[in-house]
Each structure stands twice: as structure tokens, then as C-alpha cells.
Amino acid sequence: MVLLLSFGLAEIGFAQKKGDPLMQAPLGIAAYTFRDQWKNGIPETLDIIQELGFTEYEGGVPKGSTPAEFKQMLNDRGITIPATGTGFEDLEKDPQAVADRVKALGAKYVMCAWIPHKRGEFSKADADRAIKVFNEGGKVLKENGITFKYHVHGYEFQPYGNGTLFDYLVENTNPEEVKLQMDVMWTYFGGGDPVALLKKYGDRWVSLHLKDFRKGAPQDMTGLTGPENDVPLGTGQLDFPGILRESNKIGIKHMFIEDESDKELENLPKSIAYLRSLKY
After folding, report:
1. Whole-number Å distance between alpha carbons of 120 and 170
2. Which of 105, 238, 261, 271 makes an SS bond possible with 233, Cβ 3.0 to 4.6 Å?
3. Residue 45 belongs to what H/E stretch?
4. CA gap 153, 52 in Å, rounded
5. Contact in structure between 80 and 74 (CB atoms under 8 Å)
6. What is the pTM of this model?
């Protein structure tokens, strides 16, 4: 049974009184969560998303629709699309074409979730390539009224200098044109501390992907793990109260659940109920 759950938190702002909800952003969903559902029909899948109470969507246009048609279907269900995505090579080849696709959806952010590299061997050369592409692409996107954000995937935490290659990437990208999206599970999976990194880089972070990691599951720096290790929020290893508290201090206004398990329709109501249960 799909539960009808809605936060309605956009109106309450970022109050921090005892009893206020820790989840103070609108309830968002990452499109990848429904990768196995779109084949059953785009309207039917969007009905599930609406019924679950999601009011923000991050992702692209499912196969079989156009940007205008898809945007209208979202609008009809009271769902906005603040962010979409792009592949690294597309951004490298033609950032203006990326900007045009983002504008067709009416989104304000575009996210890149992967830097090409040899599995398990993310290097300084890979980071340097990304720095160049992100700085150049971010400038074009900003000129088009769009904010670029890099989605952290865990492999970036290879040691480098006095920190990691993630630190190197952040320090060498333009803070006005290259923002960050923390996927809290992938950050943890690669050995990063989500709360400490939120504190360290402050307003460079503009959104979160919320997912949890199974207790006892092995960690590495590949940025890849099986769907069995993606569990309902609050049942794994992530410190969501700490993550949400720090995110609220920074002022992050977009948070998207991304369920990569094979039981997304079973897990989502549990994850939503858990987020709703968290209070100051």
C-alpha cells in the first residue's frame, strides 16, 4: 500500500525550536529511484511519486516524453523540477547545449554524478580534467542562469597532499560557478565524514541525496556497491540527525531521496516516515 505523506515544510522556513522537524526542505525524489517503473508508464509512475508526497524531482526526461510534455505532467501533479543532470562528456563537449536542455525543463541546477576514471584508481590527472571541465562548463552555465553542481560519489577521497583528491577538486574549482551535491551514502562509502564535510565546505553544498548504507556492508573507493546495500533511511549506518542539523545551518534547500535498492516501492514509505519522525 502506498502511503500518502507530505511534509508541507516550505512554509515553515528554517526554524530550530524544540519539536520542529529536522527535515526542513521540501520532500524531493531523484529520478534514478524509479528506473524500473518508467516502463509501466510515465503518468502512472508520476502518480506514485505524487501519492508518496514528493514535491520536487531531480532528473531528466524519461524515454517516450518531451521536455514540454514531461514538465506539464509534473506541473499537473504539483511537482517542480529544480534540478536535472548531465553526463561529464556532454558538459566537456558542449556546455551551451547542456544549458539549453536544462532551460527547456525550467530547472535551475544541473548535476554531474561521475568523473571518468579507471575503476578504483581515481587520480590527480582525473581530478585535473574535471577541474578544467567544471570551471569552463560552470561559467557557461552561470551565464545562462544555471548553477552547476558536482555530485560526490566516494572515489574522490583518495589521499592527496594534506587531504584528499576531493579537497583538491574543491579548492581548485571556482566557488561561484561550481557547487556541490553531497550523496551522503557515497560520501560515507568512500571514507568521508558527511557532517564534517558539510561543516568544512559550508555553502559550496547546495543539495543532498539521501540514502542509507547497510550495517556491516564493505566499503571501498569504487563508488559502486550492490543494491542490497541500499536500505531504508534510519536502518543503516548514516547519521541523519547530524546531517540534517548541519544542512539546516548551511541553508540547504533541496534534498532528494535516492533509493538504489530493488525494493524502492517498499522502502520509500519507510524512509519518508523516518525523516518525518526526526525532530529538534
Report:
1. 20
2. 271
3. helix 42-51
4. 27
5. yes
6. 0.92
86 three-state secondary structure: coil
SS3 57: strand
Q: Mapping DSSP to helix (H, G, I), strand (E, B) and coil, where does residue 209 land?
A: strand
d(CA 23, CA 79): 18
The span from the CA of 192 to the CA of 186, in Å, is 8
Contacts of 14 (CB under 8 A, 6+ apart): 24, 248, 251
> Quick one: how far is CA 51 from the chain centroid?
21
HSE, CB side, 13 Å, CA atoms: give it for residue 71.
Answer: 14
Fold of 27-277: TIM Barrel (3.20.20)
Which residue, among 41, 19, 32, has the nearest Cα to 185 in the 3D structure? 32
Rounded Cα gap, residues 115 and 130, in angstroms: 7
Give residue for cell 550523496.
183
The answer to whether the CB of 165 falls within 8 A of the CB of 122 is yes
Phi, psi (degrees; rounded to nearest 5) at 209: -105, 125
